[in-house]
Amino acid sequence: MPDDIDDRQVAAILSKGLSAWCLLFKARPIAAGDTLLYHGATGGVGHIACRWARSLGARVIGTVGSAGKMAVARANGCDEVIDYSEEDFVARVLELTAGQGVDVVYDGVGRKTFLPSLDCLRPLGSMVSFGFSSGPTPPVDASLLMAKGSLFLTGLSSSHYLMTREALLAGADALFDAFRSGRITAAIDRSYPLKDAAAAHRAIAAREVMGSVVLIP
Within a 10 A sphere around the Cβ of 175, how many other Cβ atoms? Predict the structure, then answer.
């Protein structure tokens, strides 16, 4: 725990920030000039990952599930925002990329966005699946990845990238450095006393939260 960062801010960014680090630096490293599609741009991981990716020189296209979240996604660092409840996000991504598609998709939504996201990728593009807020993803045959452009697909659990103390410290050091420099921020949507943890879970399950929830002992 760094002494120069408030404990509530650490609580808000540590787990989600380490997930963002695994996405952007390990599963499919982002380089300056990349264009990425990030599903769920107003969530806790999205708040960090979109800002961080933009600071690396990437163009960030974010999706949200309602019009009310679009301004938050823009504040989170997205260059363009798509409300997939109202728009065909595949058509819009292809329009924004002049038909080329994006270099990488980071998908924490799951069933609702998974298969269409493959059509958003350029040939040899990559997709990282790391969450299932809309339900589990359907099975994918390898021939589908071949037909859509010899795509790369991986599933990410950050625990597999943080199995050693060395890896954990590397991720945490990068995260705290990014926070200190202002490249990322701590978005605390709301706080609850620990005794009200059930209410926090209900708010998260209802997708009412845009950012992090902190439980206070």
Answer: 22
User: How far, rounded to the nearest angstrom, does the alpha carbon of residue 196 sit from its chain's CA centroid?
Assistant: 27
**For position 1, what pLDDT does the model report?**
85
Which two three-digit tokens encode residue 51?
């800002």
| DSSP annotation string for 117-147 | HHTTEEEEEEEEE---TT-PPPP--HHHHHH
Query: In the sheet that 35-39 helps form, which strands lie side by side, from edge to edge?
Result: 80-83, 59-64, 35-39, 102-107, 121-129, 152-155
Look-up of token digits 């209802």: 206
CA angle 170, 58, 183 (to 5 degrees): 50
Let me know if 208 is exposed, middle or buried by CB neighbors in 10 A (0-12, 13-18, 19+).
exposed
pTM exceeds 0.85:
yes
H or E element, residue 35: strand 35-39
- pLDDT band per the 50, 70, 90 thresholds, residue 87: very high
